[in-house]
Amino acid sequence: MEETYYTITIAGVQRDLRLFEVKPGVRIAILNILGDTELVEAASRDLAKKLHEHRPEVLLTAETKSIPLAHDLSSVMGIPYVVLRKNYKPYMGDALQAETLSITTGAAQTLYLDEKDRSLLEGNRVAIIDDVISTGSTLQAMRLVLNKVGGVIVAEGAILTEGDRAQWMNIISLGHLPVWIEGKPHD
């Protein structure tokens, strides 16, 4: 029988992650930190220790699942955070934007930087934060926005990386998830 969950321990907290088919024969483990205060707080403490040496002045994340992580990291580290939004709202004014392709939805997404948040990023030392980095498309969109606004990337961090481990050697993370191809895990 094919397994449907992957058990992992993150910052001392064990979770069973459901495996989800993203395309025929390819499955990934889904980490959903929304509402998981225990995991978010433990991961924030451990990730903050690793990010501290890079001296970020602000954190940057994208909607939605990584917002609790960015919020808690902001509190632990005593620095502000900015969220790139997936939908433009008129109150966002002259928003900057960058496009990405989501592995979980398979669709193109545009990320928007609210005009009011530009000054938080412009010329400042920024740590990019995500819950899981898999294809790197969201990471790339966040980099593009930072380049447009003139922010300086000093670190890129996530709770977990996924897929080709060698590709994520420069990412500060607390663990790694394989990708299941034809039922077998691949790093």
The assigned structural class equals alpha/beta
Count of domain modules: 1
Instruction: Kindly provide the name of the CATH class.
Output: Alpha Beta
Basic shape: globular
**Main sheet: strands, sense, barrel:** 6 strands, parallel
Q: Give the overall average pLDDT.
A: 92
CATH architecture heading: 3-Layer(aba) Sandwich
What's the number of extended β-strand segments?
13
How much strand content do the residues show? 35-45%
Number of DSSP helices? 4
Query: Helix share of residues?
Result: 10-25%
What's the CATH topology name? Answer: Rossmann fold
Unreliable spans are none
First-residue to last-residue Cα separation = 22 Å
Q: Radius of gyration in whole Å, from Cα?
A: 16 Å
Run of helices and strands: EEEHEHEEEHEHEEEEE
Brief characterization of the structure:
This protein has 187 residues and is α/β, with parallel strands linked by helices.
Write up what this structure looks like.
This protein is α/β, with parallel strands linked by helices and about 190 residues long. It has one domain (about 35-175): Rossmann fold (3-Layer(aba) Sandwich), CATH 3.40.50. The protein is built from four helices and 13 strands. Strands 4, 5, 8, 9, 10 and 11 form a six-stranded parallel β-sheet that branches. Helix 1 (about 35-50) crosses helix 2 (about 65-75). The longest helix is centred in the N-terminal third of the chain and has 16 residues, at about 35-50. The protein is globular and about 50 Å long. The two termini are about 20 Å apart. The model has no long low-confidence stretch (mean pLDDT about 90).
